[in-house]
Every structure is written in structure tokens, then in C-alpha cells.
Amino acid sequence: MRFSIQTASLRQLVLLSFFLALIPVGVLLWQSNKSLSGVSNYAITSAEQAVSTVRQAESMQSLVVDIERAVRQYAVVRTEALQRLALNHIDNQLQLLAQLCRSLPELALCQSQRDALQSLRLKFIEPTSEVPEALLLQVRTQQQQITKEIWDLLERQLENQQQQVAKTQQQLAWETFALVLLTLLLVLWASGRITAPVQKLDRMIRAIAQPKHQFPDEKLRGPRELAELGEQLRWLSSRLQQLEALRLVLLRHASHELKTPLSSIREGCALLTEQLVGPLNPQQQEVVSLLNGSADRLSVLTEQLLDYNRLLQQAQPNWSQVVPQQLMQECFSDHALSLQQRQQQVKLDCQLSSLCTDATLFRRILDNLINNAQAYGAEGSPVWVKLYRQDESVVLEVANNGTPIPVALREKLFEPFQRGTTPRFDAVQGSGLGLSIVADCARLLGGHADIVDVVYADVCIRVRLPLSGEKMV
């Protein structure tokens, strides 16, 4: 069975990455154990050798004293026993010296001490009563020098051992650094094999969320689960494009095709209302008034659908310099009749004399906010409209008194075809597109819309637009 990283599952890739990351760690542990074992064995061997050498040096030092004592005793009492004892001490000293010289060939006085001991043995065998003081002094002095040299050698061995330990530590440090770096590179490589397709999935999802998205054509490569998820997103993108096209076609055709029969209905209702085709009795007049109301409501809904359709088709705003005071007065004039019917008065506070914006989009925002305030505001209560600059933004506020909007519903009301629980006070039944159009227009202008709390009104909708490209006068 062939194992391919491109077709491996996410679980297999994670396990493989974990195994690869453990390899340098295992090598580091093995190398550390090997180095520590070498240092430990070297220290034990050096310690055993040092103890043995010190013991030999002490034994030889004691034998020198025994040799000197036996020689002097034999000089006074010449007996075979004392002679054999002295010769035995000298022979033992020669054996110990031979062992010491084999274990420590660095000793410089080995041959000289051996010659002195052999000369002492030869002179001791000769039948003379004189004590070889010169040879005894030479043997004693050289033995002291040998002992001193042994201690010097042991000190040098200790220094070499310390240097060896330091060298081993340095080597382990470099090996640790190299293996940790290798482990890090392996972890980065493995994480890249996982994060790269995840980032591409994120780009796919963001592309799907765009109004006119360009879905990446390249096939996602990586773990099998993520590759399958990428194909599902590709299918979802295609499906959403189809649904979006169908929705736009439906909105465009439905809203357009409704206008022709709606115009005929309104013209017929007007003829009946003016009784140009003949007089009407009271019951017929009541029916005609109901038809007029339904036709007006259908006309308003059709205009909102057309407005929403035009908004969906507009990709970029057309920036221009406008006079906000004049633009607002024109909007208030168009809504004057509906405001007068509910005895509502607009209180305008415009602090800007010039505004760089898309006049059509800004007017759509203002129209829908004024219509919303007129329809849901309390009768006889004013409608506050404010336009001012705050930091690096232009803020438009439209507020009214009435039923406050719960916090849980505020964000949802900016979605298409979403309506609140508060009933309208006019004769038109809303479609739930007003605040959605406000939010979409604000997004096209680079801003956003929110429902906020203010002290002077019960309901306030605030639109915050960026100041970039704007020229203040």
C-alpha cells in the first residue's frame, strides 16, 4: 500500500508529523546517554587508576623506610635473617616500581630509581660492615620525587578530565541546538502542510461571502478531509451563484412585471373614484376606496423591490461633492405629506456644509430612515435628524419617539425581509427591506449602520461613514 502525503488523511498527517518530530528528540536522547556514559566510564577508570597509583606510592614509600631500617640493622647485627629481610624488601620495591612504571610511563625517575635499588642490592650482598648511606639517601630522595611526580600526574589527569567533561558538554549543547532546530523545522513543515489548505479554505469561504466572488480555480491539495471540504465549498459556491442569479432575475422580473398591471389597476381605480364611467353607490365607493388603498400599498412594495434590486446591481459608488442641507430639504419635502398626516415635525441639525458621497446612495439612506421614523414614530412627536463629523467619520442620526427596539432584535432588523414586532402607524404594510437597504447603502459607502441608545429619543438609527475623500468647508 503506497502512502502519499497528498492523499493522506488529516489523522495520518498529524501522526506522521509527530513521529518525524520525535526522531531528532530520540537521537538527542541517545547521543546524550552515550556521551554521559563515556564521561562516567572515563571518570570511574581514572578514579580507580588514581587510587591504585596512590596505594602503590604509599606502599613504596613505606618499603623505602623498611629497606633503610633493615640495612642499618644488618650493619649492626649481621645475620642471615636480616639479610634475607632486607633483600626481600628491595625485591618487593623493585616489583612495585616495575608495576608503577608500566602503568605510568610518563615518570622520569623510573630507570634511575631502578638502578639505585639494584646497586643497593649488590652492595648489600657484599660482606662489608659499612652502610651505603649515599645509595639510601638517593633511593629515599628519588622515591619522594616519584611520589611528588605521581601527584602532579594525577592533578593533570584531573584537569584533563575536567576539560573532557567541558568539551562533552559543549558538544552536547551544539547537538541539542542542531536537533532542536531540526525538530522546529519539521514542526513548521508539518504545520505548513495543515495550515496551508486551511488558509486556502478560509480564502474560499471569504470568496463565497463576497457579493461577486471569484472562487479559486485551483484544486485544494492537502489532507483528504480538507480536500473533500474544498470540493464541497466549490459545489456550494456554484450553488450559491445559481441561487443568486435566480434571485436577481426574480427580483428584476417580478418588480418590473408588476408595474404594468399595477398602473392599469390604479388608472381603473382612479376612473371609478372620479365616477367617469358612471355614478357609484356608497357600497361601490367603499369597495373602490379599498382597492385604492391596496393599489397604493402594492405600489410602495413594488418601489421598494425595485430600489433593492438597483442597490444589488450597483458595485461601486459614484463619488461627488454635494450640499447635505439641500439634499436633506429635498428629502423632507418628498415626505412632507406623510409627516403632516401624523403631525410630525423634522428637527434638523446639519453641521456640515459640504459632503463627498454618492448622492443617490445617501438619499436612499435618508429616505428609508425618514420613512421608518414616520411610520413607527409616535404621533405628534418630532423626528430628529443630525449630520456631524466625529473623529475621522461622518455620522448621520435619525431618531424618533415610540416603542424602543429590544437589543436582541437590533442586528437582525438590518437583514432583508426582517421586521420588528412594533406595528406601523401608517396604512402601508412594510416589506422588511427599509433598514436592509440602509445597511447595504452604508456598506457600499464604506460605513455601517447601527441602532443605538440616545437620551433625547426612544429609537435612534446611526449611520457612520468614513471621512476619506471628503472635503470639509
What does this protein structure show overall?
It is an enzyme of class 2 (transferase). The chain has a 5-stranded mixed β-sheet with strand order 2-4-5-7-6. It is α+β, with helices and mostly antiparallel strands. Mean pLDDT is 77; it is low at 1-6 and 469-473. The chain is rod-shaped. 19% of the residues are buried. The protein has helices spanning 10-76, 80-103, 110-125, 133-209, 224-273, 282-313, 324-334, 336-341, 359-376, 407-410, 434-444; strands spanning 320-322, 346-350, 355-357, 383-390, 393-400, 448-452, 459-466. The protein starts with 9 loop residues before the first helix and ends in a 7-residue tail after the last strand. It folds into 3 domains: 10-191; 223-313, Helix Hairpins (Orthogonal Bundle); 317-466, Heat Shock Protein 90 (2-Layer Sandwich), CATH 3.30.565. 67% of the residues lie in helices and 8% in strands.
Features:
alpha+beta; 3 domains; HAMP_dom; Helix Hairpins; 7 strands; phosphorelay response regulator activity; histidine kinase; rod-shaped; disordered N terminus; phosphorelay sensor kinase activity
Give a summary of the structure in a few sentences:
With 473 residues, this protein is an alpha+beta fold.
Which SSEs are present, and which pair or pack?
Blueprint: H1 10-76, H2 80-103, H3 110-125, H4 133-209, H5 224-273, H6 282-313, E1 320-322, H7 324-334, H8 336-341, E2 346-350, E3 355-357, H9 359-376, E4 383-390, E5 393-400, H10 407-410, H11 434-444, E6 448-452, E7 459-466
Parallel strand pairs: 2-4
Antiparallel strand pairs: 1-3, 4-5, 5-7, 6-7
Helix pairs in contact: 1-2, 1-4, 2-3, 3-4, 4-5, 5-6, 6-11, 7-9, 9-11
